[in-house]
Recover the amino acids of this structure.
């Protein structure tokens, strides 16, 4: 499955605005409805992940403590599984793993993207070409099949394995984008001036180039997080994760194998999927809002009833 | 295909049996003498119903059909054996090895059971019109000798088969040792193939890889046609039992997964089911009063502890006893298997299938007839483990068998209060196999194949020659149990008479109670669901004339010979 | 010309790298087809016989690794893909793949093309009517749909249209199991019926991406100077939208489209899994579960080649359509 990432516009050659971190950014986020919504959803999940105990009285969601296959009721908001576990409790406690996967895999994939992408642009020569080649190889290799093969053979579907697999398959897209942008920046004036000043290459990269690419890096991170959430859920759904762990994807796996949809327990299947979708949506919204912030041309136009110039006017 | 559970397999690997049958049998074994079979029970009786109607099978294949039917190819022979090809004698595991002669109308063992003479049936024709003779039988076994890859039960290499010759209408097979235990394999599990087809062309050059797309057999059906999504079998008009089979068509769709198969069973589109249906009441039984299920147990699913001294905890008898006493097998069966697999017992003898080998009193005397949490607690406390300071153990199992995962979740909960903290580790099946065979585990959850009596499964699990040192792959004795007395018991079995065999098995059961080398939890079954809206003649609990699942071959032939359509009788 | 040669060089090099990765991957992972076969036959049969069976089908794991590698490269390229040793033991890999390929091409290919066309059209219109009702409604909705997991959309559709309607739309398989494939309208109708839900799943989950990308490109393009110039010149809105803006806006999307065409062959594995659709994605899943090396390798190579060819074609296309790109080479 190809998670189509919304093009940030930077890759089409539009120069990114050089922005100081903080300050203006936060104000822009506050002003965007999409960003606020995305942030709100993320905040809700974060709270659930940090203090799940506040939202359910069950302490061990995998314990077979209740009567199996109960419909939703006051004690069991979403009913119970066919083994006798509280679905709502599993959902709440499962937030943690899904969030951790999204953030950790997104973070490490982005770090790898930045390292490889920017280095390949700046090292130049053979090293740069080799890195670019490696990036392209990973880019065209069909990721989901690769993921299935890796995850099946890693022996144990632990969290670490899932993370590793996600990072390995998720970094190349961002690396390519970052490389393209870094390449286009190479000959800019402010970098010329740094070079003339005699600054070391590493200084140039870290202190001059990277800040300029912040918006793209953040967009990459959000994209990678989205990709990780969806792919991890897909992996676990197929049964390639750890079936005894507590996460949304594992819930989906059990629900599917017990045929929840057909046996009158659809909420067991739909609820964790909805959570995966919501978390993904929050990243997508943040990503899209970020797009608009960094590319003024995309900002939403206030609808002006009185003075309508031609439709589509800038 | 999502593997939610494995189907119980019934037939032992002869090589496992033969691994240690090197010892010579005592000359002139007492009591037995020659045994022969010449009874003619129901399936070869005269036809008593009118022909007509069809049945649709729902047995999940997991992959679309390749339309190959070679009986020597283990991936596909469950599609042709019983439908198109027939064995010499049908042996019913569910009725204490009751025999039904098929292509052999009778047989005679020699006194030392080292050779057997089959008399082949007259008047049988192949589906292409050629006559069936003893030559075909000899040729079938000859193929297995020439191409070792086709000798699926290691008859020539493991069982000691020395020669198979045909003379007139008799076939003589000679062995290097007493071959009683192998009868189930060579008489019941080998489909006889036509010499005139298998001695020409591709089949002769490569009998192991030949596709055999249009199988020619003596059986009640032929294949017409086969496509990726469905195999249609049509009744063989020249079948040697006149008037049979009653059903004129059998449909065998290629279900990729349990979901659609279960749906079709529930709404009656398929009538013969052979897989695990979760929540079977809601999903299947309540949908129609004609939906029934009966799944006979045939082998065990067990916790395999590591008895090697390198694993200090599990090699202690007290620890194993504690586990065996703490688990509530009834609950495991109820919650983990949805009640569809009966609880096992500590002797490892599957009941009610093998009721006569089972010593109920001994189980009660040893204290394993019901869970005893207090005793388990005290056993572990004696070693210093309590719930507050538990013994940490890991049990490995195969990813994808969700009912085993569910059972282990129950076990984990039951071991917590006595002072064992169990971690369930799901491994990819290849990794699991590696670790299981090489002895790299504390506990493992597994189920083996069985045979027509408990001897086969117990021997696989307990015979010391099936074991191996840690680090080397064991063939089937994964827990590394070594007991000379039990070995001797197994050695005596092949030459003992029926009463003697029962005694031997009971003694082995007693060793199971005493040494707790493995801990059976539930009994693996042949999944079976059947619909009686139009079809009758199914095997049932009260009349288990054959193993009922569609993947049990060649039992499937017996079922097909009994089934008839009610509407076609009018 | 040089540009094309460079791209071709990249194509070959990447192909070789992917093939090599493909060769070593199954071999460094634990497990073997023999064990998988033992599992599938429930330990009924003698392992020695099974091992010989596998050898008859060409599985020779003990040969020299270099020899195996060279053989493998040669075989992959010449189409000698060997015989399946997994669940379809004994069937030539080309036959197995040949059976599944049309279904994936049909289901995933057609829906990808449809998604692209419809999505781009909507995106163009939305981008054009900036500030209009369509534009303020679309982005949030489609941002949401583009983030939905494919399999969840599939499960939801199954619940609503198959379970709750008592089976009105089938939720499994590519055609009714009783039917024989034939070129009759009845059969075709049946195939279409079975394809509705999986196709809808793919469309719903993927169209959002096309719409948004197209809209963003459109909006960005409209801000360009030459569009202003066109408007100043007095050209009609219609003309500007199609000839000036859309043509340029669609370029980046084309490359994305080409990439996703390449990914079509990987078959939307999750969708095929949820709907039990016997396409290439499902085949790969099974091949991996059954340690079917020949099938796995052939499939993996097929997937990679498809994407590479698509990328190459798209590069050619871009070079042809956009003179600016030729220099960048």
């Amino acid at each position: 499955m190809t998670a189509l990432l919304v093009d940030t516009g930077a890759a089409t050659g539009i120069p990114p605005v050089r922005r100081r971190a903080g300050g203006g950014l936060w104000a822009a986020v506050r002003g965007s409805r999409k960003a606020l919504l995305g942030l709100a959803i993320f905040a809700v999940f974060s709270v659930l992940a940090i203090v799940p105990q506040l939202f359910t009285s069950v302490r061990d969601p995998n314990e077979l403590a209740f009567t199996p296959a109960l419909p939703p009721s006051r004690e069991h908001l979403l009913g119970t599984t066919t083994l006798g576990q509280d679905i709502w409790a599993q959902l709440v406690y499962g937030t943690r793993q899904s969030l951790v996967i999204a953030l950790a895999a997104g973070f490490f994939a982005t770090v790898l993207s930045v390292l490889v992408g920017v280095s390949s642009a700046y090292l130049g020569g053979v090293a740069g070409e080799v890195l670019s080649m490696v990036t392209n190889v990973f880019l065209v290799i069909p990721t989901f099949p690769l993921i299935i093969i890796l995850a099946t053979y890693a022996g144990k579907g632990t969290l670490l394995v899932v993370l590793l697999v996600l990072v390995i398959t998720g970094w190349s897209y961002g690396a390519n984008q970052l490389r393209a942008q870094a390449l286009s920046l190479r000959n800019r004036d402010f970098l010329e001036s740094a070079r003339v000043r005699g600054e070391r290459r590493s200084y140039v990269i870290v202190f001059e180039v990277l800040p300029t690419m912040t918006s793209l890096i953040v967009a990459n991170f959000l994209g990678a997080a989205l990709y990780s959430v969806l792919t991890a859920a897909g992996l676990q759904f197929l049964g390639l994760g750890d079936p005894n762990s507590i996460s949304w994807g594992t819930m989906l796996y059990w629900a599917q194998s017990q045929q929840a949809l057909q046996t009158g327990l659809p909420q067991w299947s739909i609820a964790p999927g909805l959570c995966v979708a919501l978390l993904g949506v929050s990243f997508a919204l943040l990503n899209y809002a970020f797009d608009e912030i960094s590319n003024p041309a995309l900002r939403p136009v206030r609808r002006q009833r009185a003075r309508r110039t031609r439709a589509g006017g800038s | 295909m999502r593997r939610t559970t494995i189907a119980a397999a019934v037939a032992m690997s002869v090589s496992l049996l033969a691994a240690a049958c090197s010892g010579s049998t005592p000359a002139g074994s007492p009591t037995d003498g020659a045994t022969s079979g010449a009874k003619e029970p129901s399936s070869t009786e005269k036809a008593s119903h009118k022909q007509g109607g069809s049945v649709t099978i729902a047995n999940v294949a997991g992959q679309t059909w390749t339309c190959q039917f070679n009986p020597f190819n283990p991936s596909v022979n469950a599609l042709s054996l019983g439908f198109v090809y027939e064995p010499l004698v049908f042996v019913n595991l569910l009725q204490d090895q009751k025999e039904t002669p098929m292509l052999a109308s009778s047989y005679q063992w020699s006194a030392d059971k080292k050779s057997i003479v089959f008399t082949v049936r007259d008047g049988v024709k192949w589906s292409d019109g050629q006559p069936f003779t003893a030559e075909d039988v000899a040729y079938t076994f000859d193929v297995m000798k020439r191409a070792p890859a086709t000798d699926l039960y290691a008859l020539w290499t493991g069982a000691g088969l020395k020669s198979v010759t045909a003379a007139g209408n008799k076939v003589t097979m000679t062995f290097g040792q007493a071959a009683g235990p192998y009868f189930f394999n060579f008489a019941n599990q080998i489909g006889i193939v036509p010499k005139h087809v298998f001695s020409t062309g591709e089949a002769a050059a490569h009998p192991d890889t030949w596709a055999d797309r249009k199988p020619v057999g003596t059986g009640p059906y032929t294949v017409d046609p086969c496509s990726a999504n469905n195999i249609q079998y049509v009744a063989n008009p020249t079948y040697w039992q006149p008037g049979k089979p009653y059903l004129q068509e059998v449909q065998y769709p290629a279900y990729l997964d349990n979901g659609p198969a279960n749906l079709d069973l529930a709404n009656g589109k398929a009538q013969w089911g052979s897989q695990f249906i979760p929540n079977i009441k809601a999903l299947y039984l309540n949908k129609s009063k004609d939906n029934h299920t009966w799944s006979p147990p045939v082998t065990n699913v067990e916790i395999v502890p590591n008895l090697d001294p390198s694993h200090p905890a599990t090699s202690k008898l007290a620890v194993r006893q504690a586990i065996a006493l703490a688990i509530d097998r009834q609950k495991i069966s109820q919650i983990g298997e949805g009640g569809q697999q009966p609880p096992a017992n500590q002797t490892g003898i599957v009941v009610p299938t093998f009721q006569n080998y089972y010593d109920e009193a001994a189980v009660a005397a040893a204290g394993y007839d019901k869970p005893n949490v207090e005793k388990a607690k005290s056993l572990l406390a004696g070693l210093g483990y309590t719930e507050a300071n538990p013994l940490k153990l890991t049990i490995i199992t195969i990813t994808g068998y969700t009912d085993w995962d569910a059972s282990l979740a129950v076990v984990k909960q039951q071991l917590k209060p006595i002072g064992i903290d169990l971690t369930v580790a799901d491994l990819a099946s290849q990794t699991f196999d590696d670790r299981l065979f090489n002895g790299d585990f504390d506990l493992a959850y597994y189920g083996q194949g069985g045979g027509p009596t408990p001897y086969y499964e117990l021997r696989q699990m307990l015979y010391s020659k099936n074991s191996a040192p840690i680090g080397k792959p064991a063939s089937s004795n994964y827990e590394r149990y070594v007991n000379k007395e039990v070995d001797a018991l197994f050695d005596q079995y092949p030459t003992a008479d029926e009463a003697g065999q029962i005694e031997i098995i009971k003694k082995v059961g007693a060793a199971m109670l005493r040494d707790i080398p493995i801990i059976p939890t539930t009994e693996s079954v042949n999944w079976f669901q059947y619909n009686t809206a139009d079809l009758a003649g199914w095997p049932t609990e009260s009349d288990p004339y054959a193993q009922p699942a569609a993947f049990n071959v060649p039992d499937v032939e017996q079922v097909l010979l009994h089934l008839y359509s009610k509407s076609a009788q009018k | 010309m040089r540009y094309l040669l460079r791209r071709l060089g990249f194509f070959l090099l990447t192909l070789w790298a992917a093939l090599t990765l493909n060769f070593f991957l199954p071999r460094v992972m634990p497990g073997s087809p023999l064990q998988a076969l033992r599992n599938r036959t429930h330990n009924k049969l003698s392992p020695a016989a099974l091992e010989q069976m596998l050898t008859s089908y060409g599985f020779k794991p003990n040969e020299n690794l270099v020899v195996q590698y060279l053989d493998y490269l040669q075989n992959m390229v010449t189409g000698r893909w060997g015989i399946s040793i997994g669940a379809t033991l004994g069937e030539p890999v080309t036959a197995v793949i040949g059976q599944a390929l049309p279904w994936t091409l049909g289901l995933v290919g057609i829906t990808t093309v449809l998604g692209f066309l419809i999505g781009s059209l909507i995106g163009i219109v939305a981008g054009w009517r900036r500030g209009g009702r369509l534009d303020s409604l679309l982005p949030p909705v489609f941002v949401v749909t583009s983030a939905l997991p494919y399999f969840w959309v599939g499960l939801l559709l199954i619940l609503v249209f198959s379970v709750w309607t008592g089976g009105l739309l089938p939720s499994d398989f590519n055609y009714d199991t009783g039917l024989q494939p034939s070129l009759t309208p009845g059969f075709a109708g049946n195939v279409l019926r079975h394809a509705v839900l999986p196709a809808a799943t793919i469309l719903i989950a993927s169209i959002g991406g096309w719409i948004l990308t197209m809209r963003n490109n459109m909006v960005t393009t409209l801000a360009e100077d030459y569009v202003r110039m066109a408007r100043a010149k007095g050209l009609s809105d219609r003309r500007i939208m199609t000839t000036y803006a859309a043509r340029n806006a669609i370029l980046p999307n084309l490359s994305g489209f080409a990439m996703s065409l390449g990914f079509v062959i990987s078959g939307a594995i999750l969708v095929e899994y949820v709907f039990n659709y016997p396409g290439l994605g499902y085949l790969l899943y099974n091949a991996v579960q059954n340690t079917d090396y020949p099938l796995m390798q052939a499939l993996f190579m097929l997937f990679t080649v498809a994407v590479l060819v698509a990328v190459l074609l798209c590069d050619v296309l871009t070079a042809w359509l956009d003179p600016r790109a030729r220099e960048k080479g």
In short: The CA atoms of residues 464 and 482 of chain B lie 5 Å apart.
